[in-house]
Design brief:
71 residues; four-stranded antiparallel β-sheet; three-stranded antiparallel β-sheet; 48% strand; globular
Length: 71
């Protein structure tokens, strides 16, 4: 399989991607600043993007594997 990743979003507008499993650390492997409170996060089917819903009524696309964020 591959590395297990978990995405979280919060009221401070930050999206963090964490390494899961027994080897997962306490530091995020990727962080994105959306700029307003995050209401939802969802991985794309192929696992390359994280779709982020926020209070700005936009869907933000974050690419944790390349550490780029597109709006």
């Amino acid at each position: 399989a591959g590395t297990e990743l978990l995405a979280t979003g919060s009221d401070d507008g930050m999206v963090h991607v964490w390494e899961g499993g027994d080897e997962g650390g306490k530091q995020a492997v990727a962080t994105f600043d959306i700029g307003c409170p995050v209401t939802a996060v969802c991985w794309s089917q192929d696992g390359s993007n994280v779709y982020v819903g926020a209070l700005d009524n936009e869907i933000h696309v974050c690419q944790p594997l390349s550490l780029n964020s597109q709006f």
